[in-house]
Design a protein that fits this description.
This protein has about 260 residues and is mainly α. It contains 15 helices and six strands. The strands form three sheets. It has a two-stranded antiparallel ribbon with strand order 1-2. The protein has a two-stranded antiparallel ribbon with strand order 3-4.
């Protein structure tokens, strides 16, 4: 079955949802935008008509919002809000824990338990299991394993079998994902180390809130196209959520600002 055929379904399975996303995110950048989004909207309307189904209210609102603009952009979370996907799988995209970047950073810190800078399949499975338990949902281990594998395939952009911070951040709504902004200002390891040492003004091996404030202000000034200085407080709050009691160590800040392994 093709992605277009899946769109005709009354209920879409987790595996079918992945196939739909993979098909329409044709450039694999983690978002549907431009022509990709317009193709999806057109084929969604055609598929529903062919199946004798009306657009749901959520689909109608989506078409109204994105159907007449060429600069729209959606992520996996936005797609999950409109497709009739199996309920337990949808919970991962609607959980209250991940409504803001700050919440997401705190969640990351908890599940990247070995501070490797990655979440592996076992850590991801633990994360998904906890989300379901908080929603009072119990599922078989085999189903949880299936969901884990699908989520890994869906978010693992470089196919290394584990998720980086920016990959898992696609669980956030596009407008909440401040990490998108920071993709354009990342530094190589040498530049990052130099910057860390410069802004770690007292040389104690970590950056505190005031030092981070100075660093972010300078970044905003140098990168006005990518970063909006009016959002400085939000950036700072989200990044400090990775800190250890207000101490932001090199490895944690590197997740945001370093383009390669430090």
């Amino acid at each position: 079955m093709t992605a277009e055929t899946h769109l005709q379904g009354v209920e879409i399975s987790a595996a079918q949802f992945f196939e739909i996303w993979h098909h329409y995110d044709s450039d694999g950048n983690g978002y549907m935008d431009g022509k990709e989004l317009q193709n999806f909207i057109q084929e969604l309307q055609q598929a529903r008509k062919k199946a004798g189904l009306d657009l749901t209210p959520e689909m109608k609102a989506f078409v109204d919002q994105y159907g007449k603009t060429t600069d729209g952009k959606i992520g996996i979370v936005e797609l999950a809000q409109i497709l009739p996907t199996e309920e337990n799988f949808l919970l991962f995209f609607r959980c209250q824990q991940l409504k803001s970047s700050e919440d997401f950073m705190q969640t990351w810190r908890k599940y990247d338990s070995d501070h490797s800078g990655f979440i592996d399949s076992e850590e991801l499975k633990s994360f998904l299991k906890d989300l379901l338990q908080k929603a009072n949902k119990q599922i078989e281990d085999s189903k949880l394993t299936e969901y884990t594998e699908i989520m890994l395939r869906m978010f693992d952009a470089n196919n290394d079998g584990k998720l980086e911070l920016t990959e898992l951040a696609r669980l956030l709504p596009v407008q909440e994902n401040f990490l998108i902004k920071f993709q354009g200002v990342k530094m190589c390891a040498k530049e990052f180390n130099k910057a860390f040492e410069m802004y770690d003004q007292d040389g104690n091996g970590y950056i505190d809130e005031h030092e981070l404030d100075a660093l972010l202000k300078d970044l905003c000034e140098k990168n006005k196209k990518e970063l909006d200085i009016t959002n400085l407080a939000t950036y700072k709050k989200s990044i400090m959520a990775l800190s250890d009691g207000g101490k932001l160590y090199r490895a944690e800040l590197a997740l945001i600002l370093c383009a390669e392994e430090n």
